[in-house]
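Friendly challenge for the regulars: who can give me the structure tokens for this chain first? No prize, just bragging rights.
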Amino acid sequence: MKIKYFNYFFFLIILLGNACSPKPSQIIEKTDTLQKKDEIHLSFKQGKNEFFVKERNEIIYLKKAPFTIYFNNKEYNWDNKKPYAAQIAITNKIENKKWFVEGNIADYDNVNLFLSAGTGMASSENNQYEKMYVEDDNGHHYLTYDTQEKINRATLVKNLGNGMHRLKWDIDTYKFKHKEHPMKEMKFDVLYLMFFIDKNLNKIVEKGEYHVVDIHFK
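First reply, four minutes later:
Bragging rights claimed.
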């Protein structure tokens, strides 16, 4: 009799355990949905270490040294009304993160001051961003890959097919208040970055189109 009740009790424990355990699809939904959904596959590489950004808000740790930002995007084509670009705002003030939000960026007076119309910063004469601009009020980098006009502010890494490209931006210098500094002389312990690609070109920051990254320097 005791053996019979023991077997029944053991079977009941297994049944309850299986019912309460999360399914594999549930685990993936929690940790990896945004990465699959946005197709940006944003990452930061420094030396042999590469840090993949999977959530909308993340914290990464880098050395005070050059690094590279990698991302996926389509080609910029103004004539066909497909101006795909990666917009990257970087600030040294944590209070400016209040501007790193979803919403319409077509109007300068909109909530997103750093990405609003007219705040894109000019590149160098060779059409490249040879330095990373750290802003304390507004402004963003506007990275494009344009084979028509040969204005490539991002460097091609690989053609992924279906109009998508793996691109990168190498950073070894930053500029703050009109002064340039090598990355090894980074004066800030933390920088706050917003990365945005308007995938549907509706001039609205939406879920699946952006990441906010706190970069801590060691």
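Residues 1-36 have pLDDT under 50 and may be disordered. The two ends are 66 Å apart (CA to CA). Your move, everyone else.
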